[in-house]
Amino acid sequence: MKKLLALVAIFGLLSLETASMSYAQDETGSANEEMVAQNDAPVAEGDSAAAATTETAPAATEEAPAEEGEVEEKREVLSFHQTVKRYFIEGGATFMAFVLVCLIFGLALAIERIIYLNMATTNTTKLLNKIEAALQKGGVEAAKTVCRETRGPVASIFYQGLDRSSGEFEEVAKAIEDYGSVEMSKLERGLSWISLFIALAPMLGFMGTVIGMISAFDKIAEANTINASIVAGGIKVALITTVSGLIVAIILQIFYNYILSKIDSIVLDMEEASMDFVDILYKRKLQGK
Hints:
The chain is built from ten helices and no strands.
């Protein structure tokens, strides 16, 4: 499980590095395009250049709607991956990277817990029937073998009870109860970290919101006027970081609630099976076996 967690974390960090490299390439490409545009600009020479500019002006005006249409078509053709990358870049690499790290590690822990809980799930009815049959045929040692060959916390609890079956009935019940608490803590391992990432992601998003608003007001103070284009940039960054943090929190919360329901189901089966197991041992003790 630890290897799986490490692999998922490494994959997420590599994805983050790829996004940063794409951001750098986009900036370089835009700078190169600006330089090419400046080099291709014609130099005006007297009245003939002015006349040429006047003649070509209507043509440029007529071509403008077509270019706008092409830009709109390009925006519509953007794939989901390209859209996510664009919003990641526009939201600011710093805070978006922290939100992405919360998503990566939170999902890694959640997937590890889900795999562990699925492996810990046991058919308690079938296991009790096997143990009861083994006790009748081969005694305690045969029942211990059945428990060793079965994975999951329920089989481990039954093994501890069989190991102390030669003692008093209260001692067996106490051993099952104590070891049940240990197994329950193993099932809940790592949930505190998942809840931390659930709380941390929206907090980072809101922090990006505050910083984006501060940046917008700084630009207004520098320009000494209120302009929609000046305010829109900072507000857009603020909203993107907020939405990203909320999306990460929602995703991790769904996984967290699923894990809690899975743990509750396993614990309930564990308690019911333990009571039935104690009854089997009690009947066996009454029979003098």
